[in-house]
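User: Just a sanity check before I run the rest of the batch. Below are the structure tokens for the first item. I only need the designed sequence back.
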């Protein structure tokens, strides 16, 4: 039994503008750029974000 204790916790990236989390750094950067320039959210981008229970905000 090989003791491969690889922590598979996924690296995630957070948009510093809107605070959304992304698995892919590429999308996080797209989001940051968009957020910075447009001060709004782009659905095409944020649909790539991952949901995190930051504030337990659920409906
Ligand atoms: Zn953003």
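Assistant: Here's the designed sequence for the first item:
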């Amino acid at each position: 039994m090989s003791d491969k204790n690889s922590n598979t916790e996924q690296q995630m990236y957070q948009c510093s503008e809107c605070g959304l989390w992304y698995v892919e750094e590429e999308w996080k950067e797209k989001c940051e750029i968009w957020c910075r320039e447009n001060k709004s959210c782009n659905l095409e981008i944020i649909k790539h974000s991952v949901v995190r229970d930051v504030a337990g905000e659920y409906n």
